[in-house]
Amino acid sequence: MEKRVRFQSRWLPWVLIAPQMAIVLVFFFWPASQAVYQSVLQQDAFGTSVEYVGAENFQRLFADGSYLESFKTTAVFSLLVAVSGLSIALLLAVMANRVVRGALVYRTLLIWPYAVAPVVAGVLWLMMFASPYGVLAYALKAAGVPWDHLLNSNHAMALIVMAAVWKQISYNFLFFLAGLQSIPPSLVEAATIDGASPWQRFWTIVFPLLTPTTFFLLVINIVYAFFDTFAIVDAATHGGPGKDTAILVYKVYYDGFKALDMGGSAAQSVVLMLIVVALTIVQFRFVEKRVQY
């Protein structure tokens, strides 16, 4: 028998959701509408000269080779951050879930990085790879491995990927650990009695039951890689060397606040928003089919 909650007043539900709706309207829909409006305008940095140009800003964007190259950079960066972050966090969660003594200490230490601001994470990893005094730079030099993120684009990409993954690992770890602890031990014990190896138990029982958590984290990590990593890129590489680490969100900032192309920057933010919305829809449309609730 289906049960439904009925409010005595039909206005009460609207009152309850009003604070959340106000936040969404003020901090999402209003800025998004302003970006769409400014994307069809050409204006100077101070807004004293405004001209309607229609789709001209978008046409200039897709005729710009450096902007098209930033799509490839963003795709590589986002894929590396999402896959690496989820894989490492899952491994740490599985290991932490097996710890009996000192479990609280281990879990607390693994959660700490989430409290670090993105810009601090970027500076931290930059200092560790700063030659010749950085800890990791010194270790690489002692091992005979040349490292120069200022000139080598692959090194620069590796630097921001490591910083972004380290910053997000704690968030992923928390959800994976909670998912692992919600799995009934009797299922794993039954598989053990049947002779299943630890690897077989993980892939046939544990991981399928974690697919709702994994799907949620996949969506969150894609959004994180597209938007929340701006401070890491700005602090660690400034989009360099050249523009080899200038992901889309960083290019929005650079063209708007440094190149002072307000219309072009607004057009980029609209394109970026549409890409993330499209990716989220695709994930819910196709990836969610493999989720076992």
Characteristics of this structure?
sn-glycerol-3-phosphate transport system permease protein UgpA, two-stranded antiparallel sheet, cell inner membrane, transport, single chain, membrane, 293 residues, mainly alpha, 2 strands, MetI-like
| Fraction of helical residues | over 70%
What is the H-and-E element order? HEEHHHHHHHHHHH
Distance between the termini: 21 Å
Count helical runs: 12
Total count of strands = 2
Strand order in the sheet with the most strands:
1-2
- Weakly predicted, low-confidence segments: none
Strand content: under 5%
Tell me the overall shape. globular
Class by SSE composition: mainly alpha
Mean pLDDT: 88
What is the CA-atom radius of gyration, in angstroms?
Answer: 23 Å
How would a crystallographer describe the biggest sheet?
A: 2 strands, antiparallel
Organism: Ideonella lacteola
Subunit structure: The complex is composed of two ATP-binding proteins (UgpC), two transmembrane proteins (UgpA and UgpE) and a solute-binding protein (UgpB).
Protein name: sn-glycerol-3-phosphate transport system permease protein UgpA
Subcellular location: Cell inner membrane; Cell membrane
